[in-house]
Each structure stands twice: as C-alpha cells, then as structure tokens.
Specification:
elongated
Length: 191
C-alpha cells in the first residue's frame, strides 16, 4: 500500500513539471495574508523611507507559521486531487481493457453493426444514383424546353419581320393605287 502511494506521488511529480513551486506559492499566500503592508505603503504620503516604515509598522506580527500551514494545506489538497485523478484514470483504463477483451457476443454484435452500416451505405448509394438520374433527366428536359422555346421565338421573329415587310409593301401598293386613281380621275376630268 505504501509503495503504491509512493509510486503515485512519484508519477505525479514527474508528470507535473509546470506545477507552481512551494516557495513561490508561499510568497503569494504571504502577500495575500499580509496585504495591509502594500495598502499602507501605497496610501502613506511622503518619501520612500517614510512609506516603507509605515508599511512595516502596519504589520503587527509576521504570521509565517500560519502562512506555511496554508501553503502546505494547498499543496496537500493539490497532490490529493491529482492522485485521485490518476487513480480514476487507471481504473477507467482497466475497465476499457476489459471491454476490449469482451466475449464473442460483442464481436458478433460489432459484426452485425458493420453489416447493417454496409447495407445502409449501399442503399444510400442506390438512392443517390437514382436522384442523380432524375436530376440529369430534369436538366435534359429543361434544356429541351429552352431550345424549343428559342426555336419558336426565332420563328415568331421571322414571321414578325415578314409581316412588317408585307405591311410596308401593302402600304406602297395602296399609295400607288390612290395615285393611279387620282391620275385616272384627273384624266377623265380633262377629257
């Protein structure tokens, strides 16, 4: 039991290279615990030495033992958390190994799942092919309808041009007829 705990502590210390160091944590906790030093240094007016003296006077007693206790408590809690985390990870890995070494019924279930997925993929491929065929057919029909519409539009344009020519020729013939009638009536009046 003791060797397992030591191994866990060793694994934790090796894997946590970026963990905050004890002295740095002690300094941070000490600074937070004795924050009146900083506030009195900032709030006191005068030169640096006067401000420094006021900061030291504001510190009634240096409670380094209490800060040391809080630092140890912080690191103990942190180490305990990571040890429990590592133990939980080990248990999960063991359970996953047991799951992987499961019986043949799990292998058959996996094979059935794979077979079901393969049939689903094949039916989806067939549906995709049918959809693509319908889309191609619809595109061809659309192109055919557009080409028919363009042919009809060209014929309508040709007929409109022919009608315009015929109307112009009709107008010219009417003008000649009116001219010929006026000449004939003028010739009859002269005779």
């Amino acid at each position: 039991m003791f060797t397992k705990t030591l191994k866990s502590l060793k694994a934790f210390n090796e894997s946590e290279s970026l963990a905050p160091r004890f002295v740095l944590t002690y300094i941070v906790i000490w600074s937070l615990w004795h924050s009146q030093i900083f506030t009195s240094f900032i709030l006191t007016s005068g030169d640096f030495i006067t401000r420094f003296d006021a900061a030291l006077i504001s510190l009634e007693s240096n409670q380094f033992i209490l800060v040391f206790f809080f630092t140890c408590l912080f690191f103990s809690g942190r180490i305990g958390y990571f040890i429990l985390k590592n133990k939980a990870d080990e248990l999960l890995e063991k359970e996953s190994e047991v799951d992987l070494q499961g019986g043949s019924d799990q292998r058959f279930a996996k094979a059935d799942d794979v077979q079901r997925l393969m049939t689903m993929i094949s039916t989806l491929k067939e549906k995709l092919a049918l959809t693509q065929e319908r889309e191609d057919k619809a595109n061809n029909e659309r192109k055919l309808a557009i080409s028919k519409q363009l042919k009809l539009q060209a014929e309508i344009d040709d007929m409109a041009a022919d009608i315009a020519l015929l109307n112009r020729a009709n107008e010219e013939l009417k003008a000649r007829l009116v001219n010929a009638e006026s000449k004939q009536s003028a010739a009859l009046e002269m005779s």
